[in-house]
Amino acid sequence: MKKMAMLFMALATTAALAACNNNTNTTNDTKKEAAPIKATLTVPETAKIGDKVELKVDVTQDGKAVTNAEDVAFEVKNNDTNSDKMVTAKLQDDAYVASYDVKDTGKYKITAHISAKDGGHAMPNADMTVAKDATSSEHATHNDHKSTTESATEEHDHHHDVAITYNHKHTVAKDKEINLSVSLKHDGKALSKASVHYQVLPQFKGGKPTWITLEETSNGTYEGKHTFTQAGSYQLKLHVENDEGLHAHEVKDFTVK
Q: Mind listing the pLDDT tens digit for each residue in 183-200?
């Protein structure tokens, strides 16, 4: 009887420990679920040639300001001139800001690209109009009319629809110019008139993220030249977007010797 009692006690203890471990794992798994990042983009609704406009995005997570984002940049696209430029943001008073010198008239689409440490990505966008018949040396930061949009962490479901062919090597010598070229297809057809950028993410201490804009050189093929001045391991994150709401991205390792 004593042996039987001891056996039952041992089994009960084992079951209790297993239940405890399961509860602990459940708690840990719950803690690992990070809240989505939210971003609020603020830009002037209108500007004039000669203005220095302020681009600002507030990033929060679980109600708190995010001040350690992996990379934040503003994409400034002039739909009239078909120009596209990336402007790196800097942290200022718990927000990410940058200035942009207005040189051309047109209708602009400004998109903030936010990459969080936990892999979250948000892309709020807003419109800005530069009048064709007005020029001014005044700063647009004095303009009270602002365009503000909000965006939460985005889940991109379109990646499987975009076929990416890399026409360049993923290794290059330091200080040697490389032509970064990709060919894109969507639903089996060449993807034309897309906005294509490489997000350069150094994987070593002291490296600074940057962006490379790829221009369409032929139907569905996009190219951009760049010179890496620091040797080391990188990640190149390709972003593909168009006006129909498509957004795909893919990350590849890259080495500079």
A: 999 988 999 999 899 989
